[in-house]
TrEMBL record:
InterPro entries listed in its UniProt record: CobW/HypB/UreG_nucleotide-bd, P-loop_NTPase, UreG
Descriptive protein name: Urease accessory protein UreG
Quaternary structure note: Homodimer. UreD, UreF and UreG form a complex that acts as a GTP-hydrolysis-dependent molecular chaperone, activating the urease apoprotein by helping to assemble the nickel containing metallocenter of UreC. The UreE protein probably delivers the nickel.
Organism expressing this protein natively: Methylopila jiangsuensis
GO cellular component, one term: cytoplasm
Residues annotated as domain CobW/HypB/UreG nucleotide-binding: 29-200
Family to which the UniProt record says this protein belongs: Belongs to the SIMIBI class G3E GTPase family. UreG subfamily.
Keyword Chaperone: yes
UniProt KW keywords: Chaperone, Cytoplasm, GTP-binding, Nickel insertion, Nucleotide-binding
Lineage: Bacteria, Pseudomonadati, Pseudomonadota, Alphaproteobacteria, Hyphomicrobiales
Positions contributing to GTP binding: 33-40
Example of a GO biological process term: urea catabolic process
Major location (coarse): cytoplasm
């Protein structure tokens, strides 16, 4: 069953059920997913939601050969521009978030050095396909964003992001009637393949569902008793 904001404890995936040790450094989370699924739009919606929760945060973006997503966030007025760093992934976006995340780890370290008291660094992956996953050397917890317009068969394709992410976000719910997608069925199929890991439906443009995602982040990696 897809989660509502009132059942946030169940949004915290199984790996996060164990109490987190007190941390001296900022929590690090990933936001990955196919090209155009709405990763940047979700981060734009999450920044104010996390600020309202008092979270001191920064963002690292990954683009293939540009800094476009970073420039968009810096221009957004949602976050101080110096709190957004860009990694240029080169030819293979998988590599910098999974096989060799050293560039991203260094960017996270730079942000922590520049902003003492930083609590959260969000790493946005470059636009990619269903196969991308994050190295757990880089992040503590990660979100995979798919979108309704990509087709209601995406959960049935069982890509690693759909299966393994700590939170699956099904974005662009507003488009379902326009693209002939049966949204309740898509969400049910996503639930079915994830073995109890949470799924949240969002419309990153209107903000629907974004509070659920912010709650999930807060309870998974930030506010732990
Ligand atoms: N209708 C609708 N459009 C959305 C939603 N979320 C994002 N978009 C639009 O989808 C397009 C892609 O969104 P982005 O946030 O750039 O997607 P992305 O995953 O960051 O893209 P890449 O970084 O290029 O992979 C933009 O035109 C957004 O305005 C949504 O919930 N509903």
């Amino acid at each position: 069953m897809t989660q509502s904001r009132h059942d946030w404890p169940s949004l915290v995936a199984s790996r996060s059920d164990a109490p987190a040790p007190p941390r001296a450094s900022a929590a690090r989370i990933g936001v990955g997913g196919p090209v155009g699924s709405g990763k940047t739009a979700l981060i734009e919606a999450l920044i104010p939601a996390l600020h309202r929760r008092g979270v001191d945060l920064a963002v690292v973006t990954n683009d293939l050969v540009t800094k476009e997503d970073a420039e968009r966030l810096r221009r957004s007025g949602l976050i101080a521009p110096e709190r957004v760093l860009a990694v240029e992934a080169g030819a293979c976006p998988h590599t910098v978030i999974r096989e060799d995340p050293t560039l991203n780890m260094a960017a996270g370290d730079d942000l922590e050095a520049a902003f003492p008291g930083l609590e959260l660094v969000i790493f946005e992956s470059g636009g990619d396909n269903l196969a991308s996953t994050f190295s757990l050397d880089l992040v503590d917890w990660w979100i995979f964003v798919i979108d309704v317009a990509g087709g209601d068969d995406i959960p049935r394709k069982k890509g690693p992001g759909v299966l393994k992410s700590d939170l699956l976000v099904v974005n662009k719910t507003d488009l379902a009637p326009h693209v002939g997608v049966d949204l309740p069925r898509m969400l049910a199929e996503a639930d079915a393949v994830r073995g109890g890991r949470p799924v949240v439906a969002t419309n990153a443009r209107s903000g629907a569902g974004v509070e659920d995602v912010a709650d999930a982040i807060a309870h998974a990696v930030l506010f732990r008793e």
